[in-house]
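The protein record filed here:
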Amino acid sequence: MSQIKRYSHLMHNIASNTSIEYPLNPWITLWWSAAFPGYGHCLINSPLIGYSLIIFEFTINNLAKVNQAIYYSMLGDFNGAIDVIDQRFFYLYIGVYVFTMFDSYRRCVDMNNNYILSFRTTSYTKTTKASSFSVNTLNKVSPVVATYWEMIMPGLGSLYLNHLISFFFSLITWTITIGASRFYIGLYQTCIGNFEKAKTVIDPQWFLFIPSIYGGYVYFTYSQAVINNIQFKLSQVQFLRSQYQSHTFKLPLQVLPARGEMSMLIVASFEHSTAIEIAITELERIGIQKSNLFTLPLRVRNEKKKLFDNSHYSDGVSFVDLATILGSVFMLIGGIYGFVLKQGPILWALYGLVVGGLLGFFIKFIAIRKLPSLDLFGRVKATEVIMMVRCKADDHERVITTLWNNKALGVTEYDEKESQLVEV
């Protein structure tokens, strides 16, 4: 009987888009749903719901004048906020707004659980989809390049990633928002020093959409580029394991029955440090003999540490998530108070974007420094030494725990029954 696959593949390709399952922090999706309803759903591969909610946000927010009321409230003109709000649509807006945050959080939790089960049951991923319309192939991309083009013009980053539907939707919504807010007219007046004119020409109702839209598009593009590269790695791992882990290959430490007991082969990677020698002495103390230990120092490329992911290096550690969140918040605040400050909303929104982005970057920088497998820049440390350990099957949990406790960068075990390496 053929095996029935209950859970989906990690990736689904069509000619115009690639949907990839990958675990996300549910609080991130909740935040982006709060910043702009629909964005959280787009992050968890529910674009139809996401786009519908984005259209709802544009429509009902403008009918209820929510942004205009926020603008007056932040300036302390509460009577103006009461007068401008349209109660016919405001209470409808509140219900959907709260539900959007709840639903994106719930769906993200479900997606994370489904990812675990799909990851454990998926053995093959098809990475190319061709049609008369387009050819969509999973390849390495540069998150920095994707982010750069998205910052230049929202939608271009999605086009770089071959997310064609997202490209068209982003382009249309950004064009409408920029046109209705008269952003570029205000930018021109700001550049020539006519700040008072910039204040009067910009429409606050549409202008307050920009921080959330811009930050959301940039974060979506960067995260999708990183996830794309991680999925490429996973699909290649599946291919290599299925085709190039022959049980006839002679390993340095052969997995052979010892005294009638099954033996296991455990492989770990380290950077050069005293932790390796400490790990070896601890393994010997629990009964692993020297003849069952094999270490292989590697010659590694002498490269400077990379602060951002690129097409050849994606570890999933993002400095962009908190930077875009705080950048959009500070940009919104700067844009609001810029209407009453000297240099106008455009410059103060840009000040807020820079300050919030840098603040988020350095907070994440400080937090990531505490992770043992990462360097000061949040990058995964280079593998410099490979260690192989042969042990009894009953001892493999203790061996794995010892390796992890001594700062192993990666650990895997050889499953003799399936003749393949299994991540642990």
Observations:
- The CA atoms of residues 295 and 387 lie 4 Å apart.
